[in-house]
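Reviewer 2 asked us to include a model.

Predict the structure of this chain.
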Amino acid sequence: MKKLLKKLALLPLFCGLVLTSACSNDDDNGNDNNNDIPTSWFDGTITATVVNGNDYNDLISSVVYGTATGIWSNGGFTITLPTIPLDQLTAITIPGLIISDNNTRIYEATFIRGLDSEGNLVGELHHIKEEENSFAGANFIYVDRDVTITGLLFIDDEGYFVSEGDFPLRWNVSLKKGWNWMYFTTDETGAEMSTRAVSGMRWYFENWSREFSAPMATKNTTQNRSVFSRLGR
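Predicted model (structure tokens):
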């Protein structure tokens, strides 16, 4: 289960999300208690130092996220996430959870990826924290309005999100219009999707070039699959 939950934490959180279900919540009224959920809005610019990043200075020339390109320098990177056109925003309904505004539109590409000097994708950057009995992964989400997502689901032994089970996944998410950090955390007692900041997160580079590299236009993008594709199987 621990390996499975770590894998889930490394999946994009909302990528390509269009979920519908007869049990989805149709109430546009928020929960008054949602005022206590911390937000994680930021201006879209990320500047980071990568663990052992200097080892990749000869490999990585730039970084990309969606249509945005950023700079790699001295073992780290800076990128400003792009403005998202309306036609790329996706409506969401999440079975079994409470969404404060079902008219919300959302966007997430995959993770920030590294390119070499010839434009080949050579790896992916992950913002994570791993300890003996816990794991956390983070990604960023764009929304067109303020929205909260709360409730409780469960994760079964195959990694699917279900309405009943033994391993709970709690949702305490408060997104503000624009870009937001979102965190998937898990330990022995359960998991949480949250906008509450996790201390001690660090950036790591997953080096694909050890096995292969491919032009950005032809790279297999199976890793784009959203963690939410596991809802309502």
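Residues 2-217 form one domain. The longest helix spans residues 2-9. We have added this to the supplementary material.
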